[in-house]
């Protein structure tokens, strides 16, 4: 297959890739995103299908893992960028050398939602990626993001998610208060003043976990829409958890309870 | 108290602060670090004592929270930096306007260690800060860091720790294999191939948790020094957790087990 080599910043394809890399608005408008690195591209291929286009840095063409990927996806359009241009598309210090353009997948919601996570104004991309990753591993069905959350399809969040984006239904710009009110199960918010310990609440049924903004926590209106305020017991001398750590503790306490419920 | 205003990059005090802000080697050599923001400075003051020096940005002198801090610490040496100089000392996009120079606290180890975390070549400062924060909240006694870990006293790790650095004994450049071999309890490493579920292992006694590098995981030699390989059950479609999320799940499963053991 003849491969197109692009080394000019004026190239229109390069310009559209750069917009996708840098602008959440552009990703939303076009319904597309860029995946950085072999791991994410393989995860997308296995769970959703092949990407629309592969973009390789000139210097990376002969890397074994890039070569393997190209051999696996012989029918996907391929362009090669000069290393300087490629470097401008990726915020990573050590570029992987390969990107893929994909359509934003909209995974269907299961008919009966068992577990969702409601993320309110979560601003740190690292936290958001980690929460999506934990949720996918714990078998959470869906993540609903409020307006004001970091863009779920930004390069940093995709990297942190490590493939979770293709295993979990993600919905952005969701009215979380309405979602909480409509939810057919417990809506659980964690709070230092929670009336019950996370470990004493039955989480084995249908549950929505609410995770709030890193600084401000969960808004009053969303707290009021919750059915349960739980506290994570903290016997240490600091009463404080990172949002992503608190989410992981909640998700996996549910995993534990369901396993002990199902055990003989 | 007359306050010194510094606006020259050639000022020797400014130069020493800048080294402290930027260089792990300098922090180690001098045994000092910089704390950024009122929250960390108050946490240090309450748990360790007042800082050696306060550094305020010219524009921040009249912020109520900065003013309150200065009134609380009237005997601490104070310097004021021009906003441009202050901005060069802090990597944060929205500077707090106040820094403190402190001696690196070396919190004593308890006589009988109940729970420690061994961190091997953990490289992401956000992960490291989050793990220290979770550990302090869960009542872990100490964190041992291998060579190759991110510097525990860098601005990013301090920010992520949210005061954990003053509630938890931290030791850097530790030979973790030797520490694991000398440890008087279970040494638990998580692994996708672990022979027992985290939820089925008795964690209520003396436990060391091993957390490995984000990419490479735990080294073979350290795995061999562990007494238990556990898996965190992941019913979802992705078998993968961020290091800080995995650590939080382990720490709080121990909290849960100890509470149910101690309950009447």
Overview of this protein structure:
Chains A, B: Residues 115-251 form the tRNA/rRNA methyltransferase SpoU type domain. Two copies of one chain form a homodimer. Chain A is an alpha/beta fold. The first copy, chain A, folds into two domains: 4-103, Ribosomal protein L30/S12 (60s Ribosomal Protein L30, Chain: A, 2-Layer Sandwich); 115-262, SPOUT methyltransferase, trefoil knot domain (Alpha/beta knot), CATH 3.40.1280.10. Helix content of chain A is 37%, strand content 20%. Chain A has ten helices and twelve strands. The first copy, chain A, has helices at residues 12-22, 24-30, 38-47, 64-72, 83-89, 125-138, 155-161, 176-182, 220-225, 243-262; strands spanning 4-6, 32-36, 53-57, 77-81, 98-103, 115-119, 142-145, 169-171, 186-190, 196-197, 207-211, 228-231. In chain A, the strands form two sheets. In chain A, strands 8-7-6-11-9-12-10 form a seven-stranded parallel sheet, with helices on both faces. In chain A, helix 1 packs across helix 2 (24-30). The first copy, chain A, is elongated. The relative contact order of chain A is 0.13. The mean pLDDT of chain A is 94. The interface between A and B is large, with 44 and 44 residues.
């Amino acid at each position: 297959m003849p491969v197109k080599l692009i080394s000019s910043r004026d190239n229109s394809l390069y310009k559209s890739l750069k917009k996708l890399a840098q602008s959440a608005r552009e990703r939303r408008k076009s319904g597309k995103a860029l995946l950085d690195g072999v791991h994410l591209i393989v995860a997308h291929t296995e769970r959703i299908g092949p990407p629309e286009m592969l973009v390789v840095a000139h210097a990376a063409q002969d890397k074994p893992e890039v070569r393997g990927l190209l051999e696996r996806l012989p029918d996907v359009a391929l362009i090669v960028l000069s290393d300087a241009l490629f470097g401008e598309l990726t915020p990573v210090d050590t570029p992987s050398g390969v990107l893929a353009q994909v359509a934003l997948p909209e995974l269907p919601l299961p008919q009966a939602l068992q577990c969702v996570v409601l993320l309110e104004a979560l601003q740190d991309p690292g936290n958001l990626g980690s929460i999506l990753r934990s949720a996918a591993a714990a078998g959470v069905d869906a993540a609903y993001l409020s307006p004001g959350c970091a863009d779920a399809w930004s390069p940093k969040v995709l990297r942190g998610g490590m493939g979770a984006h293709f295993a979990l239904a993600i919905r952005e710009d969701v009215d979380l208060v309405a979602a909480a009110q409509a939810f057919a199960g417990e809506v659980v918010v964690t709070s230092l003043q929670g009336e019950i310990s996370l470990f004493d609440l039955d989480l084995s049924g249908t549950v929505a976990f609410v995770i709030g903004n890193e600084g401000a926590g969960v808004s009053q209106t969303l707290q009021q829409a919750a059915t349960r305020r739980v506290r994570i017991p903290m016997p240490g001398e600091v009463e404080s958890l990172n949002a992503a750590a608190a989410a992981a503790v909640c998700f996996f306490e549910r995993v534990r309870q369901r396993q002990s419920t199902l055990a003989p």
